[in-house]
Amino acid sequence: MLVSAAEMLKKAKAGHYAVGQFNINNLEWTKAVLQAAQENNSPVILGVSEGAGKYMCGYTTIVGMVNGMLKELNITVPVALHLDHGSYEHCYKCIEAGFSSIMFDGSHYPIEENVAKTKELVAAAHAKGISIEAEVGSIGGEEDGVVGMGECADPKECKEVADLGVDFLAAGIGNIHGKYPANWKGLSFETLDAIQQLTGDMPLVLHGGTGIPDEMITKAIGLGVAKINVNTECQLVFAEATRKYVESGKDLEGKGFDPRKFLAPGVEAIKAKVKEKMEIFGSINKA
Ligand code: 13P
């Protein structure tokens, strides 16, 4: 059964480790992440962006697939199904569809509007036992070939949003989605420290987990980060393993064209990457 992410992240924050949110793209991805979590006895959060939601034929399809896998694969570790960077409308769609967690990304609204919409969604999510993440400050990333550096969150605004009753809070601290550019200045631990001072027990979320050096991850966990999102890194290892399979001519040998064989190296690569991240995050055997 899917669970809200509130409890697992409270435990993570108190225990000084972080739970990984791994974004899913299809059946193979989902299976790889769930198996890695079960094999390593770790809680896990499956992240679904709106784009991935559309690609996988909508939220109800995803809920059906994930619930089916939990049962058929005998997954007993805590698993949350979470909408990543949801708009106001899509948060409601996921609440209806049976997600166990949502993120409302109101960071592009003026703070007053972000606050009003977050408040309303907190009530709607909690009425169904669903956890909710909010975002303050923007997380950078590549758009049309230009890498935006994002904008560090204002700790006072973080406190204001945390007080609305959200279960965990994403704050921009110089983190970026996708690969980090060579001139990246690193995470702003000063900002993170100030946010944690004001928000206390609130589990903090670090987006853009791909490419952040391990020692920065460890330092961020020490300053209150309890959830780390990883997407691009799994895509990169999946693509690399699949490319190797084709380049070595394996798809031309025997039944190597069978998708169950063709996609297997990519699935194994995702599993290995997820395990590696769980080790760094400290979530192994924390189920
Ligand atoms: P990366 O793709 O950089 O790992 O970021 C993932 C993320 O933050 C999803 O919200």
Q: Radius of gyration, Cα only, in angstroms?
A: 18 Å
Q: Please summarize the sheet with the most strands.
A: 8 strands, parallel, barrel
| Lateral arrangement of strands in the main beta sheet | 1-2-3-4-5-8-9-10
Mind telling me the CATH superfamily name? Answer: Aldolase class I
Q: What is CATH's topology name?
A: TIM Barrel
Count of DSSP H/I helices: 12
- Taking the alpha carbons of the first and last residues, their distance comes to 14 Å
Q: Could you characterize what this model shows?
A:
This protein is of the alpha/beta class and 287 residues long. It has one domain: TIM Barrel. Helix content is 47%, strand content 17%. The chain has twelve helices and ten strands. It has helices at residues 6-15, 27-39, 50-55, 59-72, 88-97, 111-126, 155-162, 189-199, 214-222, 232-247, 259-262, 264-281, and strands spanning 19-23, 44-49, 79-86, 101-104, 131-136, 141-143, 146-148, 168-171, 204-206, 225-230. The strands form two sheets. Strands 1-2-3-4-5-8-9-10 form an eight-stranded parallel β-barrel, surrounded by nine helices. Strands 6-7 form a two-stranded antiparallel sheet. Helix 2 (27-39) runs parallel beside helix 4 (59-72), helix 2 packs across helix 12 and helix 7 packs parallel to helix 8 (189-199). The chain starts with 5 loop residues before the first helix and ends in a 6-residue tail after the last helix. Bound molecules: 1,3-dihydroxyacetonephosphate. The site of 1,3-dihydroxyacetonephosphate (13P) has 15 residues, from strand 3, strand 10 and helix 10. 1,3-dihydroxyacetonephosphate (13P) is lined by residues 23, 47, 84-85, 177-178, 207-210, 229-233.
